[in-house]
């Protein structure tokens, strides 16, 4: 059984990458892992806010980002449903946008393949362009 990690992003390139993986990589019994990484929520720098109120706002924002990521992953799962052999798992995780969290998850999962759509804001392009 192969574990194929597909990066979930709200861009057409990511959907095309999933379609490619379904048609070219997936075999019977393989597991598709839909991975969405949402940005780390940083506390605002307002000095006047009470700590409890600040934590509540940060937690609400984090919850909203997690929910949006899960909804995106569910829409990707809909593409997988037409493939009867596709077993699908969804992971939504807070992390960086430069690929470190994705790479760590791929290692942790012990994935056979990583599939990501290439676009202007892709973490892969950022890795290539960094010094």
UniProtKB/TrEMBL annotation:
InterPro entries: Rossmann-like_a/b/a_fold, UspA. Residues 1-128 form the UspA domain. It comes from the Eukaryota. It holds the Pfam family Usp. This is UspA domain-containing protein.
């Amino acid at each position: 059984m192969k574990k194929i990690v597909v990066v979930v992003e709200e861009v057409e390139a990511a959907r095309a990458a999933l379609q490619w993986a379904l048609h070219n990589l997936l075999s019977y019994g393989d597991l598709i892992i839909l991975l969405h990484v949402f940005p780390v929520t940083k506390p605002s720098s307002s000095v006047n806010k009470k700590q409890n109120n600040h934590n509540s706002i940060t937690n609400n924002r984090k919850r909203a980002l997690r929910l949006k990521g899960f909804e995106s992953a569910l829409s990707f799962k809909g593409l997988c449903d037409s493939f009867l052999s596709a077993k699908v798992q969804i992971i939504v995780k807070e992390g960086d946008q430069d690929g470190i969290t994705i790479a760590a998850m791929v290692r942790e999962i012990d994935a056979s393949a990583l599939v990501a759509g290439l676009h202007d804001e892709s973490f892969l392009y950022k890795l290539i362009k960094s010094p």
